[in-house]
Fold this protein.
Amino acid sequence: MARQQGWLALILALAIAAWSVFITFPFQLGLDLRGGSQLTLEIQPTKEIEQIKSDQVEAVKAVLDKRVNGLGVAESTLQTIGTNQLILELPGEQDPSRASRVLGKTALLEFRSQKPGTEKAFSKLRNIRSQFNNTFINQLPLNEQNFSELEEQLNQETISQFLDSLGIKNYSTSKYEQLVEINKKIDSEIISLFEPAYLTGKDLITAGRRQEQNLSSWEVTLNFNKEGGDKFAELTRSIAGTSRLLGIILDGQSISEASVGSQFKVAGITGGSATISGGFSAEQARELEVQLRGGSLPLPVKILQVRTIGPSLGAENIRRSLIAALLGLSLVAILMIFIYRLPGLVAVIALGLYSLFNLSFYALLPVTLTLPGIAGFILSIGMAVDANILIFERIKDELRRGNTLIRSIESGFSQAFSSIIDSHITTLISCLVLFNLGTGFVKGFAATLGIGVTLSLFTALTCTRTILRFLMSYQALREKTYFVPLAKIPYTNSSTF
């Protein structure tokens, strides 16, 4: 009796603890429940790397993970699809264009010194770039679909003048593509005036941002390791006090060209730090900071698809899932009580505890809940009910044979034990396979089903048994008719023990 009371006290303590977790820790909701953005990325081969291998995919994932963390999106997931594709889910992120800009760029940072004798050519290109930016700077960031609304407002003659001045022939008929071609041509011509990269972002330790003094624009700060600091000092020393400039190039685009004063002729700029000033807005500086902090991608990445789910659709999914879960639980509870009587009521109590334990585990681990994850939870409820049914059917068989009530209960649990263990182990094996080989929503389904199946063993073999034994301690409940209809009891006047 003392042992039975100890088990009952343990179950009550676990239930109280689970309820505390349930009301304290919020659930992590997946993309389909919370709303957000989903990006499908494809890793592109290069001339040097034509065959993409698994270790290269993992290297790309590591860089993208750092960038996603820098974006500040909580509960994001990045999964591998096939051999060269990734799916990134950003719950709560309703502006996928921002993530696209940050994630899609290689972020290859280079520091180059200007070639001697190119000052005149650079001055001409810089004037063209300045005129081009002043004329079309507001149109360039737009994508082609949004740009079509402004296309009629642009002067084709002005665009043609830029094309001719840069020697661009056989250009596209689309004004948007013409602007893109001009922008690329200006960058490529400017970059050709600089020496090969002497210092790259590989030697970068960290990046930050700050607002420029007495200006509304922002700048990005850089800190190099010792080797990078030495290279930066040598690079700046070589051009200090000359008309040659230091070019800062990111992904094939010159974002800044700076002169180095004559005071650095002896040792260069030491200290292992530098600043990129390019008239950045706060958002542009943040995006550049995130890219540089995450490091450059070992292979280029192409964004194949961007999908957005609104928060209203996610709320509707939650509402329907709750209705389905509550309706299913109610029907199961009614059926169990109707068929199994008192044990059925005990099973309903055990299922309530099982659901509470499950949800508290999801909040505590935490498990990101998705629609397939909820389906796994509901399916695991079916597994928990199935275990109770096996036990109760064994109890009914023993009662039909004429055994006493207490002996029938103990025999029912012991005889059903092997069947319950076998069914749960086979389900757990399936969950492990799905979790290791599946991706995205499949992993969520496998995780919730696996947790549920494990907990159902505890509730079926411990909670149900403890509660049933506790009820049997009351003489008024020791009636076989509370377990089996009177007509199916072979000895109606037999002892209920």
